[in-house]
Every structure is written in C-alpha cells, then in structure tokens.
Amino acid sequence: MSDYYNAFEISPVPDPGPDAVPPEPFHGIYGMPAFATIPTNDLAASVDFWVRGLGFFELFSIPGTLVHLRRWAFQDVLLVAEENVPEQAPAMSFSFSYVLGQIDSVVADCRALRPDSVDGPRDTPWNTRDVTVITPENARIVVTAAKPFDPASQEARNLEAIGITPPDPDSDRTDNTDNTDNADNNEEHA
Fold first, then answer.
1. What are the angstrom distances between the C-alpha of 169 and each of 50, 70, 79, 165, 178?
2. How far, in Å, CA of 155 to CA of 167, rounded?
3. What does the alpha-carbon distance between residue 120 and residue 107 come to, in Å, rounded to a whole number?
4. If you placed Cys at 6, which of 61, 108, 140, 167 could pair as Cys (CB 3.0 to 4.6 Å)?
5. What are phi and psi of 146, to 5 degrees?
6. Alpha-carbon torsion (43, 47, 139, 30), positive or negative
7. Beta-carbon contacts of residue 187 (< 8 Å; ≥ 6 apart)
C-alpha cells in the first residue's frame, strides 16, 4: 500500500484542469503553519509589486515596519522594512500555487511593473508550469500551476518512477492512515 493519499480537501488549491477556478483571497486569521519573511528597503514598492504583479492583498500592516500579505489560505508573506537587503536574488526560492489560467496574466503584470523580473514560463517534469519572478527586494518567487494530469504523459511516467501514482478516483479515502496498520493496532489493543 502506498504511503501517499489524496488530501486535497485540506488545501485551497483546486484540482488542476483547463477550467480550474482559483479560490477567493482568504481574509481569515489563523495560526500560520508556514510563511515567508522577506526584508525590503522600499516597503511601498515591494507591496505594490506583490499586490499588482503577483496578486496578493494586504491583510494588515504596521506602518513603516511590516506588511502582512496573502493570496489564498496558507499563502502568507511578511514584508519587513530593513535598511540592507541582498543586491541579487539568492539561489533559494519560495513557491506559490496558482491555477494554470493565471500564469499568463501574472507574467504580463510582473513584466509591466518590472520588465526583467520574469523567467519563463516553463513546463516541468513533475507536471507543472512554472514562472520565476525576482521581486523588488530580490526574492526569488516561483509561481507554479499544476497542469491537467494525463496518465499517458511523460510527466505521469516520471512521477510513477518515483512511486507517486494518481489516487484511485473511486476511493473515498481522505485520512492519513494505512488501514492495514489500523487493523493491526486494533488487534493489539483488544
């Protein structure tokens, strides 16, 4: 039995497809399981690029100090005012999920704001279309969108080669347990 399971119900990312609709921006407050903190020496320019180029919104701010940006649930960025920021983008990147239909507009919006900020789009061996964006504060952001899954594609064969197979469409299994292990555990505790 596979160690992987279908858990899309805990993610705001919709199933990939040509008609995938992105979720609405999420305005709720929650304990953030992960977030990016990015220093900037021009908070206003950074906020403008993230909002108009990458589609984030300002959740809240501490004037002159910090701006909390968000798109979908669990896509949080804290822009923090700092005097010194790196002069070039680091090798490390941070990725955000989009839907395939958003990629072209993000590329156009980012290029309109900063013509040399975009590299791509390019298709990956793991079935996504990715765009690398260098933000005003020199963060390397990857805008990524899943492509529709074609079980006969090279990407499907690439994933299967590393043990990732598509979920059984007839399965309603949505938990993180292996039913055989649960049966064994139940016998031990009986």
1. 37, 32, 41, 12, 18
2. 15
3. 8
4. 167
5. -70, 140
6. positive
7. none
Size of the chain, expressed as the number of residues it contains: 190
**Residue 163: its pLDDT value, please?**
79
Q: Write down the residue that tokens 């953030």 correspond to.
A: 32
Sheet holding 128-134, edge to edge: 94-98, 140-146, 128-134, 118-123
pLDDT at 186: 38
Supply the DSSP string of 48-81, one letter for each residue: HHHHHTT--EEEEEETTTEEEEESSTT-EEEEEE
Calculate Rg over the CA atoms of the chain: 20
Residue 87: its pLDDT value, please?
84
**Segments in the chain below pLDDT 50:** 1, 173-190
Answer yes or no: are the C-beta atoms of 146 and 156 closer than 8 Å: no
The pTM assigned to this predicted structure is 0.78
